[in-house]
């Protein structure tokens, strides 16, 4: 991974850069009146025109996991004493299960990523570096001073974060910065899709000193 560490709600990258991730709410644009749609388009245009720094927009679609919800319905059904209500809960549970089985129900999450570029560590561009990458050889990597990068990154990222959240509020969209725990869960889920449903990542700083991502291909 390109991630060196996740600390104090900031993603530290191996190239000496850093990122803040802001998760936003969404708006059902089609349900708005024509006047409200025009106002939102204008407000969003003003937001884009006011940006003096790059922002990455990420939309992540993920199949809905209703296993916990189904489990709660089963528990509710088992506790219910009224036979009629018990039957209705059972019918509802079967309906939801069938609906998700026959149709791919997706949830969408929206993120804005604000980056800090230290400019200290640049990606290799020399002919020998290209040769080593081509044949899977590892070139020497300059170690990242996480503490120093974090200190400088926070000075630059904090005002950008406040500005974006403030501008989102003007449109009627709420934004929140993903905390360290949220970031670890997010990247664990992205890079470990097959096991993320059954296994959750260890979330304390001391417990995730080993990689949370297993490489799909080993370099020879």
What does this structure look like?
This protein has 220 residues and is of the alpha+beta class. 44% of the residues lie in helices and 18% in strands. It has helices at residues 34-50, 67-79, 83-102, 127-134, 146-171, 180-191; strands at 3-7, 10-13, 18-24, 55-63, 106-116, 175-177. Strands 1, 2, 3, 4, 5 and 6 form a six-stranded antiparallel sheet that branches.
Provide key terms for this protein.
single chain; 220 residues; alpha+beta; 6 helices; flat
Estimate what percentage of residues fall within beta strands. Answer: 15-25%
- Arithmetic mean of pLDDT: 79
Portion of residues within helices: 40-55%
How large is the radius of gyration? Answer: 23 Å
Low-pLDDT runs: 123-137, 208-212, 214-220
Indicate how many domains the architecture comprises: 2
Number of helices, counting only DSSP H or I runs of 4 residues or more: 6
Helix and strand content put the structural class at alpha+beta
Q: Distance N terminus to C terminus?
A: 18 Å
Shape: flat
Main sheet specs? 6 strands, antiparallel
Structure summary, number of beta strands: 6
Pattern of helices and strands: EEEHEHHEHHEH
Write the layout of secondary structure elements.
Layout lengths: L2 E5 L2 E4 L4 E7 L9 H17 L4 E9 L3 H13 L3 H20 L3 E11 L10 H8 L11 H26 L3 E3 L2 H12 L29
Antiparallel strand pairs: 1-2, 2-3, 3-5, 3-6, 4-5
Helix pairs in contact: 1-5, 2-3
């Amino acid at each position: 991974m390109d991630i060196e560490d996740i600390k104090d709600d900031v993603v530290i990258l191996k190239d000496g850069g850093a990122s803040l991730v802001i998760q936003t709410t969404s708006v059902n644009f089609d349900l708005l009146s024509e006047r409200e749609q025009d106002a939102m388009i204008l407000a969003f245009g003003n937001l884009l025109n006011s940006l003096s720094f790059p922002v990455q927009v990420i939309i992540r679609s993920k199949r809905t996991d209703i296993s916990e919800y189904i489990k709660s319905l089963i528990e509710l059904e088992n506790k219910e004493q009224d036979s009629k209500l018990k039957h209705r809960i059972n019918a509802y549970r079967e309906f939801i299960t069938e609906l998700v089985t026959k149709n791919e129900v997706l949830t969408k999450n929206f993120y804005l990523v604000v980056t800090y570029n230290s400019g200290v560590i640049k990606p290799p561009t020399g002919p020998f570096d290209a040769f080593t990458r081509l044949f899977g050889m590892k070139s020497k990597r300059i170690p990242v001073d996480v503490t120093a990068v974090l200190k400088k990154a926070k000075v630059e990222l904090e005002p950008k974060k406040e500005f974006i959240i403030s501008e989102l509020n003007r449109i009627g969209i709420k934004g929140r910065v993903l905390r360290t725990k949220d970031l670890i869960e997010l990247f664990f889920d992205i890079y470990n899709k097959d096991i993320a449903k059954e296994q959750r990542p260890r979330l304390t700083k001391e417990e995730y000193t080993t990689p949370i991502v297993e490489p799909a291909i080993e370099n020879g």
